Amino acid sequence: MTISLNNVGKRFNYDWIFRGVSHMFEAKQQYAILGHNGSGKSTLLQVVSGHHHHNEGNITYTLNGAALDQENLYRHSAIAAPYLELVEEFTLLECFDFHQTFKSLLPGYKPREIMEVVGLEKAVNKQVRYFSSGMKQRAKLALAIFSDVPLLLLDEPCTNLDAEGIALYQRLIGQYGMDRTVIVSSNDPQEYSFCQHLLKITDYK
Ligand SMILES: Nc1ncnc2c1ncn2[C@@H]1O[C@H](COP(=O)(O)OP(=O)(O)OP(=O)(O)O)[C@@H](O)[C@H]1O
C-alpha cells in the first residue's frame, strides 16, 4: 500500500494542528510519526486512517498499482490505538470472530493459536470487560498484527505493556511487520526503533 499526502492540513476549530504535510508512505516501508505530547501525532495517524477528515490538501491510496477509495481502506488496513476500544461484552474468542467478519487473519493462523502467541490463551472465554489494561493492549495488537492487510497503523503500541509484552511486540513486528506498510505514532523508541523513516510532526506547524 502506498499513501501519498499532498499539502495536508488539519485543524480543530480555529487551531491548526499541522499544515503542509506532503509525504509519501511507500509500500512495505516502516514509518514513525514523532513529536511531543499534544503535537498532533495521533491526529495525523487518524487523518491517514480516515477516522478524521483533513481540512486542506489531499490524500491518495494506491494498492497494487490501483487507486483505492478511502471508504474501502478499512478492508486493507488494521489499526491498534488507545481510542479504539474492543467490545467489552465480547469474550476474546468473540472479538476474533467479529474481527474476521471484516478481515481475514494471516494465512495459516487460527484465533486460538494467535491467543497463545500473545499469552492470552487462558482468556479465550473471558469477557473483555474483565481484562487488565495490558491484556486489552495485547488483544488489540494481536488483532491488528495478525490481520492479513498491507497497512498497519499503530498508535502508542506499547501502552500498558509490561517488559515481556514490549519484547513480544518487538518480536511480532519484526516477524510480521517488515513486509507491510507500517505507520507508528509514538514518543518511545521501544515502539518505533524498527522504523527506517522518521517523520517529525513539529516540522509541519
Ligand atoms: N477531537 C478534538 N477536538 C479538539 N481538539 C483536539 C481533538 N483531538 C485532539 N485535539 C487536539 O489536537 C492536538 C494534538 O492532539 P494529538 O492527540 O494528535 O497529539 P499527540 O501528539 O498524539 O499527543 P500524545 O503524545 O499526548 O498522545 C492537541 O492539542 C489536542 O488537544
Blueprint (SSEs and pairs):
Layout: E1 2-12, E2 15-25, E3 30-34, H1 41-49, E4 56-63, E5 66-68, E6 77-80, H2 92-99, H3 111-117, H4 133-145, E7 151-155, H5 163-176, E8 181-185, H6 189-192, E9 197-200
Parallel strand pairs: 3-8, 3-9, 6-7, 7-8
Antiparallel strand pairs: 1-2, 1-4, 4-5
Helix pairs in contact: 4-5
The chain binds adenosine-5'-triphosphate.
Domain ABC transporter: 3-205
Pfam families: ABC_tran (PF00005)
Protein name: ATP-binding cassette domain-containing protein
**Poorly predicted regions:** none
Counting DSSP H or I runs of 4 or more residues, the number of helices is: 6
> What is the succession of H and E elements?
EEEHEEEHHHEHEHE
Quickly give the structural class.
alpha/beta
CATH architecture name: 3-Layer(aba) Sandwich
Largest sheet: spatial strand order:
6-7-8-3-9
Largest sheet: 5 strands, parallel
Mean pLDDT: 97
Number of domains: 1
Helical residue percent band: 25-40%
Highest-level CATH class:
Alpha Beta
Q: How large is the share of residues in beta strands? A: 25-35%
* Number of beta strands: 9
Distinct small molecules: adenosine-5'-triphosphate
N- and C-termini, Cα separation: 27 Å
Radius of gyration: 17 Å
Domain ABC transporter: 3-205
Protein name: ATP-binding cassette domain-containing protein
GO molecular function: ATP binding
Pfam families: ABC_tran (PF00005)
